[in-house]
Amino acid sequence: KNSNQRLNRFPGPSLARWTTLYKEYYETLYSDWVGELEKLHRQYGPIVRVGPNELHFSQLDAYGDIYAVGSKFSKDSKAYSPVETFLHLFGLLDPQEALTRRSMIQPFFSKRSVLGRQSIIQEKVDSFINELLSTYNKPNPPMDLGYSLRPFFAELIPIFCFPNLDAISALTSSGLISSIKQTPDRSTIWFLMKNLPRKVVKLLTLHETRVSPNEAKALELVADDALNSPLSEVDETNISFFQTILKRSGGNRPLVEPRLWLASEAMNLKFAGVDTTANAVFIAIRAVLGDEEILEALIGELDKAWPELGSIPLGMSALEKLPYMTAVIKEGLRLSMGVIAPMTRVVTPEDTVIGREPIPVGTIVGMSTCFVHLNPEIFPEPHTFRPERWLQEDSQKLEKYLVTFSRGPRSCVGMHFAWCMMYLLLANMFRKLKLLPTSTEDLRAPFRLKDDFVSVYEGKPVYLNVEGRRS
Ligand code: HEM
């Protein structure tokens, strides 16, 4: 029996047994594959056959089986085909190749490395706060919060990666920063590419230089710099993203064209880090401002820990110890979902057990984060933003169900960096600013998360004026 026939025992819509069009229809036309998956699981149970060769799971133990530490599963070549021809880590399908590549990239985003460079983040946060104070104080028109956060992270990520000022000015003038200000309609591009014949995709996306040529050119210049400077002379505290990678690769550069490869890794950080981090912060701020008790608890804790505004700002190590602040970020991460699409993997190298069922080798398997984060047994009233759920005596046991950064060998390499940016930005915004929403009702209105691979907030926009808070 081939693996498709071996899936006949799993229930699912009959059309999906024969064609991947079933899934593509919901992905492309509605950007709501996850919504359809919810219906399918209600109808068919915890394991649903959603394609000729694909299963989707909804039970908690299955998540741990699919995204397991040490997993040998590869990424699903169809789902990741829009980036498969790119040269960066995220596009690598093979687990062994990814492991080697991650060992070059991870050290730059280790907790120690991020803590050592947090002053770069603080400086950018300070100028953001000043800009908000001078631009959005009353009677000026309010800011659109969702719109303002993305460019903030789009600027901060390259600044953090390239301490060298020339690199930054090259990137700014290349249009990197301004391009992110327009909301891209990524889903259409992503899903169209995914479903075009492979040869056409390869032609279209030979590498990213075709997608954003200006940005690629600027990054290639920065890459040339790193490739031409002797690594022995690099000072560890000022080391750039490219220099770290080159040092860790030990001269063993995986690709024929190292400058394209480096540029590609850098461009991917924008894709990976901007929307995800901005969404988590957006969902957190929106919910805090929509609930007076949460706002008071958060500000109370911050004022106590940071009584004098003139003093040195609280660093990451101090902020991590603030339980309420931490719980607010966790709720932001839980309800923003990070990547909302099921991150599909291929069962390799042999048959395996997922969710207590034997699954044949070659099967595509996945489980959307929503099925963990919105599970009412783990998170009662799952749609409610409730920091208190993380502050109970037995809350420790919830930690393993917060999977916004995913789990296992392909989980997020930027996690510590993301946590640090979220802590510093939220702490400074709530300590230094009075955020004045134009409508509190809008903040409490229900919203939807659209599936553009990463989640996209679809709901009432959040408009705010700001005022300085006194010490
Ligand atoms: C709250 C913010 C973030 C969330 C929720 C998040 C979430 C994720 C998730 C779920 C994955 C796995 C994707 C997949 O398997 O398809 C991932 C991968 C990745 N993330 Fe993040 N991320 C965040 C921020 C960042 C930042 C700030 C960076 C770096 C600047 C970053 C860099 C990466 C990279 C390079 C990968 C690819 C890893 C691999 O393929 O092995 N992320 N992230």
Automatic annotation (TrEMBL):
PROSITE patterns: CYTOCHROME_P450. The lineage of its organism: Eukaryota, Fungi, Dikarya, Basidiomycota, Agaricomycotina. The keyword Metal-binding applies. It comes from Marasmius tenuissimus. This is Cytochrome P450. SUPFAM superfamilies: Cytochrome P450 (SSF48264). Its cofactor is heme. Belongs to the cytochrome P450 family. Pathway: Secondary metabolite biosynthesis. PANTHER family: CYTOCHROME P450 (PTHR24305), N-ACETYLTRYPTOPHAN 6-HYDROXYLASE IVOC-RELATED (PTHR24305:SF157). Keywords: Heme, Iron, Metal-binding, Monooxygenase, Oxidoreductase, Signal. Pfam families: p450. The keyword Metal-binding applies. InterPro entries: Cyt_P450 (IPR001128), Cyt_P450_CS (IPR017972), Cyt_P450_E_grp-IV (IPR002403), Cyt_P450_sf (IPR036396), Cytochrome_P450_monoxygenase (IPR050121).
